Amino acid sequence: MGGDCLHIVLQNPKSMVACTCFGLRMGDILRLMVLNLKSIYNIQRGGVLVEYKKLVDDYTSMPGGLIEAFHAIQNEHGYLPEAAINEAAEAFKISAAEAYGVATFYSMFSVKPRGKYVIRICRSAPCHVEGAQEVIAALEQELGICMGGTSNDGLFSLEFTECVGQCQERPVITINGEPYAGVTPGDVPGILNEIRNK
Questions:
Q1: Does residue 139 sit in helix, strand or coil?
Q2: Residue 67: domain span
Q3: How far is CA 195 from its chain centroid?
Q4: Are residues 82 and 146 in the same domain?
Q5: Helix (H), strand (E) counts: the chain
Q6: What pLDDT does 47 receive?
Q7: What CATH number does the domain containing 190 carry?
Q8: Side-chain-facing half-sphere of 56: CA atoms under 13 Å
Q9: Average pLDDT, the chain
Q10: Strands, DSSP E only, in the chain?
Q11: Helix, strand, or coil here: 159?
Q12: What was the pLDDT predicted at 102?
């Protein structure tokens, strides 16, 4: 009876009232709905959820493990999917809001898909004075996107970053963490072609 009722409710939530006539309490109906939706979600995303769990479980016993788990997930997927954040919250026994807060606090993490190559440009004063804005304009023009965007081919994302410790040769960009110092607007096409040809 419970399964039939659940099927009816999932098709038409207004039918919950009718199901109570069959002796099921509202709480039971809602509990069945949640369990069923969880199982549907796990079936549809099962392999990915298991993968997130494996990545997260390696770090649950270490101090600062949540950040390390997020690094592992992002290294694997390029960003932190919502399901991965929820899996981490469960594994670390914190609320999803707390896990999401960590994921969005640090600029190194992204909760939206990014390109295979993340280009970051330093926005500190020394780089700005040395022509960072012109390099940004060249990157945006070459890639056809604005800062914060991802190219249509999914290859490149543009982001700002704080000082990367290369102030002796500025402006500086990093591509997936590798610094390119003393970049000029004229260098941009060559750097992008080098990356495309990897």
A1: helix
A2: 58-113
A3: 22
A4: no
A5: 9, 4
A6: 58
A7: 3.40.30.10
A8: 21
A9: 81
A10: 117-122, 156-161, 172-175, 178-181
A11: strand
A12: 96
Q: Facing residues of 121 across strands?
A: 160, 173
Q: pTM of the entire structure?
A: 0.64
Q: Six-digit token pair at 177?
A: 């963490």
pLDDT of 100-112, one tens digit each?
Answer: 999 999 888 999 9
Residue 7 has pLDDT above 70, yes or no: no
CB 86 within 8 A of CB 94: no
- Based on the domain organization, do 102 and 124 belong to the same domain? no
Q: Is 44 helix (H, G, I), strand (E, B) or coil?
A: helix
> What's the Cα-to-Cα distance from 5 to each of 13, 15, 176, 197, rounded to whole Å?
11, 9, 52, 57
DSSP state of 109: -
Least confident segment among 45-59, 70-84, 117-131, 146-160: 45-59
Separation of alpha carbons 145 and 193, rounded Å: 16
Q: How many domains, in total, are found in the chain?
A: 3
Q: What does the alpha-carbon distance between residue 46 and residue 101 come to, in Å, rounded to a whole number? A: 25
Say how far apart CA 134 and CA 196 lie, in whole Å. 22
* Angle in degrees, CA 155, 178, 180, rounded to 5: 95
